[in-house]
Amino acid sequence: MNQMVFSTGGDWDSTTLHNNGEEVMADKLLVELHAGRDEDGNATSGGLSRGGEATAYILPQGSTDQEPIFPGNLRLTFPNHALVIENSSPTFAIEMTQVNFDGQDVSNNVLDLMVNIDSVNNEVTASLTLYKAHWFSSDEVATYALL
Amino acid sequence: MRRINLIQNFWALSLGLALTFATLPADAGGGRGGGSFGGGGHSFGGGGGRSFGGGGFGRSSGSFGGGGTRSNGGSFGSGSRSSGSFGRSSSGSTSSGKTSSFRTGSSPSTGSSFGRSGSFGSSGYVHSTSVAPSYYNQRPTTVNRVYYGGGYVPQYYYGGWSGYSYWWAHPAWYFWTPFHPAFYYSPPVYYNGGMYPGGFDWFHLMISIFVIGFIIWLISRLFRGRGVRYTTYR
Disulfide engineering: B133 pairs with which of A110, B53, B91, B196, CB 3.0-4.6 Å? Predict the structure, then answer.
């Protein structure tokens, strides 16, 4: 099972990726997850418990073969935030995914997660969107820019 | 469109409050409904309705006045239960022969016109106790006299809102709502010849917090904007 650790300080020089304690040279890291929608596609509470779809892989340097990250554990450390995604299911059942954001379990709040670290095309994207239900005010769709 | 939503919200709020109050006990006001004395449809006195006179010629001859041994015509207090019937004594007479009299014959010597003793009616939620109330050893700020249990007894006041406890002696339905101060005080108690206010009711305070919190939540849910807010954080 993969134990991946991604870390970045906000530039390419400080960006590293390790798997089971060993550094992995990669061209691309992609984690894309969408969940927390009702039958009409509108954002709602429930997060991953309502099902969804996800893609997660790395593209090793000089290779075109995608290597799946899950089942396993992916720890992402950004300058201001920390994210842990874990799925031990052999079939990568999305309902089994656990997402921890800055020390808080947000598995039932996740709407979208997008992490794209593409060194070949020099593209960097990392954001997390949560559905926050409030008692006394309108519910909130909060997007956190991780980078 | 916005105006229609506000009207719909107002009616929804009104319905919610009505349902809240509808759950309160209907007889919370102390059950002071005027009971009727005696049962309905009871008849008193005799229903003799005897007829007199002979019937030798095919008809009876009920007579007015005159001699004979007629019984009394239904007088009050009479020991006799018989009553005279007026008019003809033929069968199917329209005269019922019934008379009305209050309790004939011997009656218990209670001094009451209704042959009963004791008190009736509600005295609110005042109750006697053999345990000293919490205010018993404190110094009252005011002492009134109040009629209770057949005589006048001292009624002690201790300042603050404790006097609202005495409101339970004449309860109203709205005392059962968190919006009246009496809701937060227990009914008064009668102890050792005096009337003392009940203590603060912490359980009712908790109920009040729950009810008011629920109402605030309901209002906020009704009037908050529809849909979701979209925010961005770094």
Answer: B196
Q: Among B221, B224, B232, whose Cβ lies nearest the Cβ of A145?
A: B232
Contact status of B139 with chain A (Cβ, < 8 Å):
no
Which residues of A are less than 8 Å from B226 in CB distance?
Answer: 138
Q: B234 and A140 in contact by Cβ < 8 A?
A: no
B91 token code pair = 């069968």
**What integer is the mean pLDDT of B198-218?**
93
Residue B121's Cα: distance from chain center in Å? 7
Which H/E stretch holds residue A100?
Answer: strand A98-101
CB of A131 closer than 8 Å to CB of A139:
yes
Neighbours of B60 (CB within 10 A): 18
- Spatial separation of the C-alpha atoms in residues A101 and A77, rounded to whole Å: 10
DSSP B140: P
Q: How does pLDDT run across B23-78, given as a tens digit for each residue?
A: 333 333 333 333 333 333 333 333 333 333 333 333 433 333 333 334 343 333 33
Tell me how close the Cα of A136 comes to any Cα of chain B, in angstroms: 6
Residue with tokens 């006697």: B128
Which range among A59-63, A96-100, B18-22 shows the weakest confidence by mean pLDDT?
B18-22
Burial A16-52 (b: 16+ CB within 10 A, else e): ebebeeeebebbbbbbebbbbbeeeeebbebbbebeb
Token output for B224: 């908050």
